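Practice problem 4.
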């Protein structure tokens, strides 16, 4: 009998948002650098960042240059999420994301 717990789609989506927010909080990232770091498709990254508000996380894109995509994301408020907890459980989150 297999007793291994399998994360649901909703749990994976939740962990993905936490993981991306953590990366944005700890280093200046744009879509390209997040894609290189995570190997997630750019569309998945865009969707996850757009859905941060579902968790109460406030994120903005800071324009840093003349080109539209020149800049980086910044977390302004974690809302009800404890970023310390995310950092302490990063290995678990990464394991769940594969």
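Answer key:
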């Amino acid at each position: 009998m297999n007793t291994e717990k399998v994360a649901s789609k909703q749990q994976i989506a939740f962990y993905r948002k936490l993981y991306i927010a953590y990366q944005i909080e700890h280093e200046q990232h744009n879509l390209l650098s997040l894609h290189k770091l995570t190997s997630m498709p750019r569309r998945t990254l865009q969707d996850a960042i757009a859905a941060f508000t579902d968790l109460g996380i406030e994120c903005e894109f800071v324009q840093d240059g003349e080109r539209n995509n020149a800049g980086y994301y910044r977390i302004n408020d974690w809302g009800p999420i404890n970023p310390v907890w995310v950092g302490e459980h990063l290995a678990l989150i990464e394991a769940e994301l594969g």
